[in-house]
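Batch job 17 of 40 flagged for manual review because the log was empty.
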Amino acid sequence: MKLYYIYHSGFAIVGQTTTVIIDFWEDSIDALHGIIHNELLNQKEKKIYVLSTHFHPDHFNPEILAWKQIHPDIVYILSKDILRHKKATAKDGLFLKKGDTFDDGVLNVKAYGSTDSGDSFHIQLEGMSFFHAGDLNNWHWIDESTPQEAKKAEGDYLAELGYIKNDIANVDVTMFPVDRRMGTDYSKGARQFLEMIKSRIFVPMHFGTDYEGGNAFQATAESLNASFLAIDHRGQYWDLTELSK
C-alpha cells in the first residue's frame, strides 16, 4: 500500500485493488496535472473512492465530480456541509455528518467532528487505519486572539479529541494540520493529538508549500513515538508496506 502527498491536505491511498483520494484541491504538478490525472484516474482496474472533509475550496474542488465520466462506478464520500453549502447535490454522493459511517466491505469510513467546518475521517482499508483531520485542530491563533478566545478554541478542540479517543485507541497513519500561518505554538494541536491518540506514523499537512514549517514537527512527533514522514515536494509517496516491516 502506498500513500501519496498530492498538495496541501490532499492525499491518495493506493492499495492492491482500491484507491482513496482525500481532500483534493490541486494535483501534484498543478491544478489539472499530476499523479491523480496522469496516473491514478487511468487505473481502470482499481475501485476509486473520493473523500472530502468539508466545503472549503482548499479541501473540496468540485472538479472531482467530473471524474465520474472517467470512472462511472466512482464513490464520493463527502461531508454534509458540502451539501448544505450547495457545492454538490444529493445525487452526487454519500454525505456524512459526525457519527455517520460508510462501510461497503472494502472501505470503512467514520466521520468525526471538526473545530472548523465539516468532518474529520477515520478510514480503514486493507488492514490499515488512517485518520485524516480535515480542519480539526487547536486553532488558538494566540497572537491575534484574546486569552478567552484562545481558551475556548482549545477547549472545543480537546472535547473533540476526547470524543475521538472514546472510539479510537490507536491509528496507523495520521494526517494532521501543521500550519505555521497560525503563529506561536502552531503545532500545539498536533502535539495534543499524538498525546491522546497513539499514531504509528504521522504526516503533516495543510501547509501549502511551507515544507520547513510542516517538517519542524518531526522531533516532537518522534518524541511521542510516531514515525514522521517529512515532505519536501508535491507528488511524494511512501510504501507503507515497507514502513510496516
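Reviewer: the log was empty due to a logging misconfiguration, but the result itself is present. The chain has one domain: 2-243. Unflagging and moving on to job 18.
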